[in-house]
């Protein structure tokens, strides 16, 4: 799938799709680094499982390339986001062979920062780069279907003032450091990711063919229904009926476009919300099953344990001890 360069606008019809993409997706940690590079230079990044990657060009410019994809040139003020952590190269020229990122930044633990300095005799560039770690089990089918890279040019970033100002603050060499800095940085990058993906949703609203899953009205509608109405007593038959399809045709189309069966996708969304309620709220545990679409507490308990490997009570206790 090609890189998507988005066009911003005022259409907010896809709020439900934004929720489907991002509401269950919470960052668990961030590693960010500041790059000071002078040509010639090139760095090869490995694929990052459960990690979105962000590159913000502070000064100068670079090229991004990936296997099977056309090279993309970036300039000062541009932002590139790799939602699913696709392996890629950053370089001063698209044909430059690079050194592995792990050779120049061997330790990239979430919650820490790093710095790269590569000195050549050519033009200089400065970049803010970050690995945004998330729980891969919380990534929806629609999120996984996003293009390998999303690029916003400088003018598009400027039209999102909150995104622009957040990126500039995060890229500042004298970024404030103090109590709560790790959590503040985590949430700032989380906001930057949401703000960067919002223009992409506008692009999808205007051109659904740019994302295959949205070409199918029944499947795309079912995704939104599962994302926003997961507490209803859905069956595969009732979902198919709601979108005007037969059960077999709906199941086949959903699996082909989303990558998993509709029943598993529905269970996953319910488990994501259950985990949020148990880990982030004081809602009584006995009230959680009904809130996420289970009429039977025993059925919920068995499903939760199968999904997460622990009981709901153990999950809540673990979340409390980690807080």
Description:
With 323 residues, this protein is an alpha+beta fold. 42% of the residues lie in helices and 20% in strands. The strands form two sheets. Strands 1-12-7-4-11-2-10 form a seven-stranded mixed β-sheet. Strands 6-5-8-3-9 form a five-stranded mixed β-sheet. Helix 8 (236-242) crosses helix 9 (247-258) and helix 10 crosses helix 13 (312-322). The longest helix has 26 residues, at 181-206. The radius of gyration is 21 Å and the shape is globular.
Helix content: 40-55%
Low-confidence stretches: 4-14
- The overall pLDDT, averaged over residues, is 86
| Inertia-based shape | globular
Report, as a whole number of angstroms, the end-to-end distance.
Answer: 40 Å
Number of strands: 12
Question: In brief, what are we looking at here?
Answer:
With 323 residues, this protein is α+β, with helices and mostly antiparallel strands. It is built from 13 helices and twelve strands.
Which characteristics define this entry?
single chain, 323 residues, alpha+beta, 7-stranded mixed sheet, 5-stranded mixed sheet, 13 helices, DNA-binding transcription factor activity, AraC_lig, sequence-specific DNA binding, RmlC_Cupin_sf
Secondary-structure map:
Layout: E1 4-5, H1 15-22, E2 27-38, E3 42-45, E4 51-59, E5 61-65, E6 72-75, E7 79-82, E8 88-91, E9 99-100, H2 101-104, E10 113-118, E11 124-134, H3 141-144, E12 150-152, H4 154-158, H5 161-171, H6 181-206, H7 217-228, H8 236-242, H9 247-258, H10 262-280, H11 288-291, H12 297-308, H13 312-322
Parallel strand pairs: 1-12, 2-10, 3-9
Antiparallel strand pairs: 2-11, 3-8, 4-7, 4-11, 5-6, 5-8, 7-12
Helix pairs in contact: 1-6, 1-7, 5-6, 8-9, 10-12, 10-13
Organism: Streptomyces lavendofoliae
Keywords: DNA-binding, Transcription, Transcription regulation
Pfam family, one: Cupin_6
């Amino acid at each position: 799938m090609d890189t998507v360069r988005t066009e911003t606008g005022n259409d907010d019809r896809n709020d439900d799709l934004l929720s489907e993409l991002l509401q269950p997706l919470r960052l668990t940690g961030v590693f960010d680094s500041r790059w000071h590079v002078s040509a010639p230079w090139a760095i090869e990044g490995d694929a990052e499982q459960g990690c979105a990657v962000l590159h913000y060009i502070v000064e100068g410019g670079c090229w991004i390339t990936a296997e099977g994809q056309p090279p993309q040139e970036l300039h000062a003020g541009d932002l590139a986001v790799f939602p699913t952590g696709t392996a890629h190269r950053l370089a001063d020229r698209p044909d430059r062979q690079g050194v592995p990122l792990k050779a120049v930044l061997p330790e990239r633990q979430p919650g820490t920062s790093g710095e790269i300095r590569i000195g050549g005799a050519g033009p200089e560039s400065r970049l803010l780069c970050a690995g945004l770690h998330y729980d891969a089990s919380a990534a929806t089918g629609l999120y996984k279907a996003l293009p390998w890279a999303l690029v916003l040019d400088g003018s598009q970033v400027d039209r999102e003032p909150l995104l622009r100002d957040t990126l500039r603050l995060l890229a500042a060499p004298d970024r404030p450091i103090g109590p709560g800095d790790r959590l503040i940085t985590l949430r700032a990058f989380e906001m930057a990711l949401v703000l960067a993906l919002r223009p992409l949703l506008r692009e999808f609203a205007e051109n659904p063919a740019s994302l295959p899953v949205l070409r199918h009205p029944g499947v795309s509608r079912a995704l939104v229904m599962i994302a926003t109405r997961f507490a209803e007593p859905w069956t595969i038959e009732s979902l198919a009926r709601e979108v005007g399809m037969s059960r077999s045709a709906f199941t086949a189309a959903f699996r082909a476009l989303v990558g998993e069966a509709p029943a598993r996708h529905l269970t996953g969304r319910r488990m994501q919300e259950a985990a949020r309620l148990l880990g982030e709220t004081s809602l009584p545990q006995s009230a959680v099953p009904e809130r996420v679409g289970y009429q039977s507490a025993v059925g919920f308990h068995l499903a939760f344990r199968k999904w997460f490997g622990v009981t709901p009570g153990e999950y809540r206790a673990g979340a409390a001890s980690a807080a």
